[in-house]
Amino acid sequence: MTKKSFEKKASDYDCSVEAALDVIGGKWKGVILFHLFEGTQRFGELQRLIPNVTRRMLTLSLRELEAAGLVHREVYKQVPPKVEYSLTGYGQTLKPIIMGLRSWGDGYLARLESE
After folding, report:
1. Tens digits of per-residue pLDDT, 49-84?
2. Rounded distance, CA 26 to CA 33, Å?
């Protein structure tokens, strides 16, 4: 997804929930954000933390989060290249939402185990 695809207006959405899910929805974006709350991570570290995500999907999700202004990508000019990802200030505003999802997920998993 390119930066241009995030050049949307409020009128493009029918409700604010639709807008929020357009930015952070999908299987991996919330998980990526959760791990970035712990601090700056290199690409390989994110891959180890999220073993079921493919390299391609991780790259795509990080690019979309970066284009949305939630993730900062820092490239260090060295050999081999070093790239680090961190949350922007705006990305940090998602912490209570993602942590709320984590809490709800913990309860849901406990419910599944008790059935």
Report:
1. 999 999 999 999 999 999 999 999 999 999 888 999
2. 12
Q: Output the domain CATH number for residue 34.
A: 1.10.10.10
Percentage of the chain lying above the pLDDT 70 cut:
94
Strand partners of residue 75: 83
Q: Model pTM?
A: 0.87
Ramachandran angles phi, psi of 23, nearest 5°: -85, -45
54 in a structural domain: yes
Residues 6+ apart with CB under 8 A from 47: 53, 55, 58
The answer to whether position 115 is within a domain reads no
